[in-house]
């Protein structure tokens, strides 16, 4: 298997460690035809990837919109590229957003080196890989939110989506041909059913669950 791998991490020790593990391990197996590249500046990751056109980018992930934007642009500009994230961030909402934009694998900093090697091997073969701790949390998250969505009626889901898109109560009433009082009643019912306290939490819930 021929593969070009770009390792991007602002921490030199982490970056060098990943490269060392991959070089020592992959060279012993069938993945002997590969090249390893490195990038130390997250801000230059896109430029570096476009320059060398790697098959796989292994990158850290920071908890702000810039990281998400880089992942999105990488996937759009280099459609065949694979992305493996290794991060301290274990917030499931953030991980699900990264998955939405096309990452192929996610590991925590606590994962063993064998897991990283397995992730690289599987992703290079066109599969996805998430470390067991992340997989377990993703499944638990989906189960809990699916249970919550089941208690919402079709009309409530429609109103929730419109709220999340920034529509006012009057606008929602006009769009759905219902009264303002009915919209307010549905909003109160949704807050009660989902155990939320404010319309802002409703918006956050809708965004986290892909309703907008």
Give the structure's gist in a few sentences.
This protein has 212 residues and is of the alpha/beta class. It contains 10 helices and 6 strands, in the order E-H-E-H-E-H-E-H-E-H-E-H-H-H-H-H.
Low-pLDDT runs of 5+ residues are: none
- Number of helices in the DSSP assignment: 10
- Helix/strand-derived class? alpha/beta
Count up the domains: 2
Q: Would you count the extended β strands for me?
A: 6
What is the chain-wise order of helices and strands?
A: EHEHEHEHEHEHHHHH
Distance between the termini: 40 Å
Q: What is the radius of gyration computed over CA atoms, rounded to a whole number of angstroms?
A: 21 Å
Side-by-side strand order of the widest sheet: 2-1-3-4-5-6
Can you tell me the overall shape?
A: elongated
Fold and architecture overview:
Helix 1 links the parallel strand 1 (2-8) and strand 2. Helix 7 (154-164) crosses helix 10 (199-208) and helix 8 (169-176) packs across helix 9 (180-194). The protein has ten helices and six strands; from the N terminus they run βαβαβαβαβαβααααα. The chain is elongated, with a radius of gyration of 21 Å. By secondary structure, it is α/β, with parallel strands linked by helices. The protein has a six-stranded parallel sheet with strand order 2-1-3-4-5-6, sandwiched between helices. Helices cover 57% and strands 14% of the residues. The chain has helices spanning 12-26, 45-52, 65-77, 92-100, 113-124, 132-150, 154-164, 169-176, 180-194, 199-208; strands at residues 2-8, 33-39, 56-59, 82-87, 105-108, 129-130. The mean pLDDT is 83. It folds into two domains: 2-138, Rossmann fold; 151-208, Arc Repressor Mutant, subunit A (Orthogonal Bundle).
């Amino acid at each position: 298997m021929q593969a070009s791998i770009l390792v991007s991490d602002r921490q030199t020790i982490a970056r060098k460690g990943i490269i060392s593990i991959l070089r020592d391990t992959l060279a012993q197996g069938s993945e002997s035809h590969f090249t390893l590249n490195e990038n130390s500046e997250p801000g230059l990751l896109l430029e570096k990837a476009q320059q060398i056109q790697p098959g796989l980018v292994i990158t850290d992930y920071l908890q702000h919109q810039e990281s998400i934007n880089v992942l999105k642009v990488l996937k759009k500009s280099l459609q065949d590229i694979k992305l493996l994230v290794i991060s301290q961030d274990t917030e499931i909402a953030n991980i699900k957003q990264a998955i939405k934009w096309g990452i192929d694998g996610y590991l925590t900093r606590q994962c063993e080196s064998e897991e990283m090697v397995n992730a690289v091997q599987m992703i290079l073969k066109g599969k996805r890989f998430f470390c067991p701790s992340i997989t377990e949390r993703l499944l638990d998250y989906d189960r809990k939110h699916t249970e919550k969505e089941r208690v919402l009626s079709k009309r409530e889901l429609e109103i929730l989506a419109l709220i999340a898109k920034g529509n006012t109560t009057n606008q929602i009433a006009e769009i759905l041909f219902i009264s303002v009082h009915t919209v307010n009643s549905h909003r109160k019912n949704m807050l009660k059913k989902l155990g939320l306290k404010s319309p802002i939490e409703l918006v956050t819930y809708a965004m986290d669950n892909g309703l907008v």
